[in-house]
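[job 0412] stage=complex_fold ligand=glutamic acid status=START
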Amino acid sequence: MKIIGRYAPTPSGRLHLGNIYAALLCWLSVRSRQGELLLRIEDLDTLRCTVENADLLKEDLLWLGLDWDREMPAQRTRSAYYEECLQRLSERGEVFPCWCTRGDLKNAANAPHASDGHPIYPGTCRALSAEEREIRLRKKPGIMRLAVPDEVIGFEDGNYGHYEENLQSECGAFILRRADGVFAYQLAVVADDIAGGVTEVVRGRDLLDSTPRQLYLYRLLGAEPPTYFHVPLLTAPDGRRLSKRDEDLDMGLLKLRYRPEELVGALAYAAGQLEKYEPISAGELVGIFDKKKVGRDDIAITLPDGK
Ligand code: GLU
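[job 0412] stage=complex_fold status=DONE, emitting structure tokens
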């Protein structure tokens, strides 16, 4: 079977070192097995994401030697398709509108919390009668949520091994579309990966706990899920987690201080692909890439002395 991978960055800022670490591993995984790589700009949040950032990140990826075979349409252009997927899910009667605010959910008596800290949806609006829903919908659009079964959904991650979650007790009914009409990441990512025929997903381990929800959506949409390989996160040398706000490790500054081979070498060394740090191009890593060496622990990255 042909491997189809994808890199799906969010252009809410400049790519940082952690983003390009995940991009490099995603690229190597596909290129080392003659697969096809798709690029998809995940700009659902049109307030935070810009076309300028999307153009810059493409330029940055190419500068690093990380190319792609096909670009999928950006998510901001895909609402009609997501709506169609939402309709298909709705036909099963498990999608319902919800008007609870964040405050309502926080205050719900003894609300249990999921591992990422979000309160587990207590089912308030799920219990509304059809009449009550109609009345409320006429006044205000709701958040569209998907009710989930009391079922453990597990999978074998290529790096972290078995991972499972009971969707009802550990996650709760989750959001498919926000009240302002913006589709949620969980729905868009599955809808797009299905449309692209994606067979493998390589991405940061911060998305490991999204995977059971996504597998459930694959099931409801009647599609074959991809394989998953989650990679550790990079932290700054002082241990703090990298984010798009940490401009010190973003591509704008990194490009001023380093050559692509130096950055790729440092990332490949951090990913267990080199015995010691040495400058190397992404292309040269293709022949030696070994997924088994990636490791599971987050990595405090040290960079070589730059310019
Ligand atoms: N757009 C997400 C991000 O930039 C990645 C989503 C995914 O790989 O599933 O973190």
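The longest helix spans residues 17-31.
[job 0412] exit 0
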